[in-house]
Amino acid sequence: MTGRATSSIIIVGGGASGVVLAAHLLKSPNPDLRVTLIEKRPHFGQGIAYSTLLSAHVLNVSAAGMSAYADDPGNFSRWLLERGLVTPEQAPVYAPRSLYARYLKELLDDLEAREQQTGRLRLIREESLSISPTASGVEVALANGTSVVAHLAALATGHDEEPGAGQGHAIRMGSEADTALAEDSRVLVLGTGLSMVDAFLSLEQRGHRGEIVAVSRRGLLPSPHRKGNPIKLDVADIPLGTQLSYFVGWFRDLIRENQKAGIDWRDVVDGLRPFNQKIWQNWPSSAKRRFVEHTKAWWDIHRHRMAPEVYAGVTEAVQSGRIRLVAGRVVDITPGGGFSVQVQSRHTQQLETFDVARIYDCTGIARDISTTSNSVVRSLVDRGLARPDPLRLGLDVTANCEVIASDGTVSAKILAVGPLTRGTFFEIDAIPDIRVQCARLSKQLLG
């Protein structure tokens, strides 16, 4: 996919991924370029991650890594400094996510003002229902009965807003179903990762003081960030294409060797980051499957970490009994005045019953993309214009982000970026990875 004559592109999804892709596309000097950004939410740039107004909901990546531009990594840090929101002495900075939403909004406002005379950027606030290939491009049908046409469409719909299939009576934190709770009521959270931490912070802000029972297969909490310097690795240092057991052994040895030299394990994990996608793409399918089933939980708590101040609050809550971490699985849910939930311990196989007022789904990305609540993605899969990747983590796409149909045909007109492409790229949920993907795709499309 190089040298393609493309002058009009529809981006379906105006959250962070969509705004970042639009920003990279509009760096092109091509006067004939037309970018249409469609978002069903009232505000562009927010999505699920950055729509929160809670100051305790801070970024899990420091400001130095959150620029929207791959070739200008200091853009967000400068934005914070220029507005007096931080001082040069504050480093690393884990800014509130609401500030990052404001950053993306201002970025898009600047693009809109700059392109007002050229007409190269069009913003549409409406829900997209489907994408259909046409003889000359694509047509995106909107919920208001109209449609938009272009040469290409890029899906940037991000994370699913609804609970995963099979989560029973669970709801998403902040959804319409998340109504007021008695402050001393016990709640159950499915998941113990960063989404659970967000739920805890939200409940704290609301004045909720009841017990939070957090259940996951291993009951593990994410680790905290610490200031450090990632080790330097070369691709030749990394055993690509091996089975998982060999790779894990190599990585553990690498950590032990560096720890003996006084280097924090975080610097080893972060040193591997530039190669994470290449590692994933070179694994055989058996290694990928085993990683998702058996190793991912351990990787996640070391790779996807908390801001230090958030970690301090969460660990204090665990030690005081406010949060109870349970390694196990839910085997039964019986509705009543609230819910009676049976949980089987991973270690003892014993059953324990919890009476809870509410169940929150904070299980993260481990879901089947074919069950998505997103209308556009579901429509593409149902019509065979797209298919789940082999692990059903996202849509099956090529290394160039082209969507693959159910018959294996590579689409020349429908692309995808961000979390939808995790089956191919795996590490593609965070801005530092998404911005690189968007920069590469923009270059491929427009040169």
Q: How would the blueprint of this fold be written?
A:
Layout: E1 8-12, H1 16-25, E2 34-39, H2 75-82, H3 97-114, E3 121-125, E4 128-133, E5 138-142, E6 147-150, E7 152-155, E8 187-190, H4 194-205, E9 212-216, H5 244-260, H6 265-272, H7 276-282, H8 285-303, H9 308-320, E10 323-335, E11 339-345, E12 351-356, E13 358-361, H10 375-382, E14 402-404, E15 410-416, H11 422-425, H12 431-446
Describe this structure as you would to a colleague.
A six-stranded mixed β-sheet has the order 3-2-1-7-15-14, with helices on one face. It has a six-stranded mixed β-sheet with strand order 12-11-10-9-8-13. Strands 4-5-6 form a three-stranded antiparallel β-sheet. The chain folds into three domains: 8-160 and 367-446, FAD/NAD(P)-binding domain, CATH 3.50.50.60; 187-223 and 305-361, FAD/NAD(P)-binding domain; 235-303, no CATH class. By secondary structure, it is of the alpha/beta class. It has helices spanning 16-25, 75-82, 97-114, 194-205, 244-260, 265-272, 276-282, 285-303, 308-320, 375-382, 422-425, 431-446; strands at residues 8-12, 34-39, 121-125, 128-133, 138-142, 147-150, 152-155, 187-190, 212-216, 323-335, 339-345, 351-356, 358-361, 402-404, 410-416. Strand 1 (8-12), helix 1 and strand 2 form a beta-alpha-beta unit. The chain is built from twelve helices and 15 strands. The radius of gyration is 22 Å and the shape is globular. The model has no long low-confidence stretch (mean pLDDT 91).
